[in-house]
Amino acid sequence: MMDNIEELKSLLSSPQNITIIAHRNPDGDALGSALGLSAYLKQQGHLLKVVMPSEHPKVFNYMVGIDDMIIFDLKHDEAREALRSASLIFCLDFNGLDRVDKLGPVIADSEAKKVLIDHHLDPEPFADFVLSDTSASSTAELVYEFIVALGGAQDINIPIGEALFTGLITDTGSFKYNTRSQTYRVAAALKDRGVDDYYLNDKIFNSMKEKHLRILGHCLANRMKIIPEYGAAYIYLNRKDYIDFDIQRGDTEGIVNYLLKMDNIEMAGFISEQPTIVKLSLRSKGDISVQEICRTHFNGGGHKNASGGGVYKPLGWVLKKLEEVIPEHLTKREIIG
Predict the structure, then answer these.
(1) Is the domain of 293 the same as that of 181?
(2) Residue at 336 is within a domain
(3) How many angstroms separate the CA atoms of 165 and 158, rounded?
(4) Helices 158-172 and 139-149 meet at what angle, rounded to 10?
(5) pTM score
(6) Residue 260, domain CATH
(7) Which domain holds residue 95?
(8) How many domains does the chain have?
């Protein structure tokens, strides 16, 4: 828990004008932790606004309060004003102000007290209060601990619990990775508060459209490359694929994980050619650090087994570079048969 939490408790003992912000391209953890914390603080009598730099995948529309978020890409002035007028800013699920793009300087210039709650490596020293734990499964797990530290365990209702449990589910791949014993204790506590995890899993993972299955089929049949001697594989999509399949935000979420279903694959990549940038999403098993790969070669970072990056280079250059650096980070194996 943060060292100066008593000071923050004192601040929160009187009504505050609070703005919560999470990272660009928000995932289930960013959304869940922000909406869960927002609902809790609103219960305590504070004025709340939630800002996201960009839009979110529609699969998360079941969460209470998601329609009230201010999206910077759609409402520039309103998002900036929400941050400028805040007396307290909570920064969730990111470790540096570059992760919120053009809103970073607005936060840096704000005279509001800033609270960082995050589980990524090497947080930048921009916040007055910091709850940072890289061993945590998710920011949602830390937000739960924060609420408990504030004395609010019994105030967690089903909407708050569903939001936080969403963060747990999505950042652990339904508890398949990034877990620790505390993760399961938090999950149990949220279930005790009435959260229906079966409902949440159904909402998150069984809401695919026909288009999503066709995109997945195309990726596996036509865009998958396996490098068996290093136990690596990747899928790539070019700009034409995005046009042909009408791919929108969130449509490719989770595709990279299909590669790790193969027993001989220990590192997987998903590379997408965007209008101005090529983005990478890397995943790994065991002791392989894709965070190091992304940080060293692709201007990115994240977690040891789940990281991302982006490069302003042609798609072909990025694919070639990825294949060049794989031997530096993975051990070559003998292929039999």
Answers:
(1) no
(2) no
(3) 10
(4) 140
(5) 0.88
(6) 3.10.310.30
(7) 5-205
(8) 2
Q: How far apart are CA 1 and CA 182, in angstroms?
A: 14
Predicted confidence at residue 52, as pLDDT, reads 98
Residues 100 and 41 grouped into a single domain: yes
The C-alpha atoms of residue 227 and residue 114 are separated, in whole angstroms, by 45
Number of Cα atoms under 13 Å in the Cβ half of residue 215: 26
Q: What is the pLDDT of residue 173?
A: 87
| Residue at 184 is within a domain | yes
| Structure-block tokens of residue 322 | 């990825």
| 159 CB-side CA count, 13 A | 15
- Say what the pLDDT of residue 336 is: 56
Alpha-carbon separation of residue 8 from 89, 91, 157, 199, 251 (angstroms): 12, 14, 23, 35, 39
Using CA atoms, how far apart are residues 93 and 156, in angstroms rounded to an integer?
20
Edge-first strand order for the sheet with 70-71 is 70-71, 47-52, 17-22, 88-92, 113-118, 129-132
Q: pLDDT value at position 12?
A: 97
What whole-number distance in Å separates Cα of residue 291 and Cα of residue 299?
A: 10
Q: Long-range contacts: 246-254, Cβ < 8 Å, 24+?
A: 246/211, 247/215, 249/25, 249/54, 249/55, 249/56, 249/57, 250/56, 250/57, 250/58, 250/59, 251/211, 251/212, 251/215, 252/215, 252/219, 253/27, 253/57, 253/59
Query: What are the residue ranges in the chain where pLDDT is below 70?
Result: 335-337
Burial class (CB in 10 A: 0-12, 13-18, 19+), 38: buried
